[in-house]
Predict the structure.
Amino acid sequence: MSDKKIQMIPKIRSGIVIDHIPAGDGVHILEILERDPALKNVPITFGMNYQSNKLGSKDMLKIQKDDLCERTIQHISLVSPGVTIKRIRDFEVVEKVSVQPPKEMVNLLRCLNPSCITQNEPGLKTRFILTDPQKNLVMCVYCEREFSIHELSPIV
Amino acid sequence: MKRDLISMHDLTAEDIQVYLDTATRVETISLKERFQLLQGKIMASLFFEASTRTRLSFEAAMYRLGGNVIGFAEQAATSVSKGESFSDTIHTVENYSDVIVIRHPKEGTSRHAAQISYLPVINAGDGTNQHPTQTLLDLYTIIKNFQKIEGIRIAFVGDLKYSRTVHSLLQALMKFRVNEFMLVSPDSLRLPEYLKRVETDFPITFMETKDLEDAIPYADIIYMTRIQRERFPDQIEYEKVKDAFCLNAGMLKKAPEQMKVLHPLPRVNEIAPDVDDTPHAEYFRQAKNGLTMRQAILLNVFEVTI
């Protein structure tokens, strides 16, 4: 067995693998998964700081459940854009997608501006538009302030 | 589809030109003819925050066009003070009127109102965000003085951080390919960076200075702003900068002949009274242009062609 294989967390028969997570971001994705009620009793394995040709160093998550809800995927795409989500069946990868933040984010993020109407009107859903995908900048549709996605806390 | 006026973000240069052309035509129509244009229409004037010029000129504009006005001039006079939500206030008012004009201290309020109401909504200022009707009247004032917008040299002075009139006008000028701006402000009130990051197909230059005297020989327009006490979270910070800039007649000796001083008003001490008597003072005519432009905006909202 090669050194690389010894390092990796065990393969799963069926489920979801989140791969190519920049080292350090895995913890933030784990927090998102913890908030998803559909994953409450699902076994999840988390590995940190693996060697990666692409990233130098990466984290990885293996989830023993066949799918993730759209909202959870969107949250992951905001926290760590570019990660790969792989669907596994009988130990084989049957589908692989790289997730990117959606162009419009409805009620996924909380606006940081305390004077924004979304912070003051009960029940009003937040809306953000992705203004710069390279720099991960978003603009609140209501107060028109621009923020880095990483400044904003997710709505759970 | 209803016509809202919420933000300069939503308007193209062509859209803005329609408002400017309508305003020009309004001035050619007699008061008697104008009075027939919006007969039977009711404007709800919802001012959750104090205003003199914007509220009075909107109401006067509606009366000049033959319409009527309902509304309030402060939040204390409404059910909001009893705990009613903003949405409920809008849904109530839309039963009684044909257009809603809103000023509110929270940013994004007009956008929210436009989304939930079937009536057209006009933003008369939302917090520190946008003030599109002021911007349109500012552009109208520029056109009346210079017969053009592209190529105009403008210096914004004072509170460039919180001033929504500066934010809106800056965005609008870029739509007309104005590519050079002088920004005069203390460090604590500089223009936010996000307003400088605009996607255009031409380069934009921002010249920043703390010295008002730099702007005077340079500009076609000096756009003065009040340092707004009510926007400062920390009053000590306000005290440090409140008297940062004061333009007086003596300073204007170095100004180009055609240079005009604009100000959205009210002023406190940033323009000395002796400037009023110089040919550069344009701010009172600018306020008068507000009445014309707001008539044009109402006509556009109601799709009345003149």
Summary: The mean pLDDT of chain A is 90.
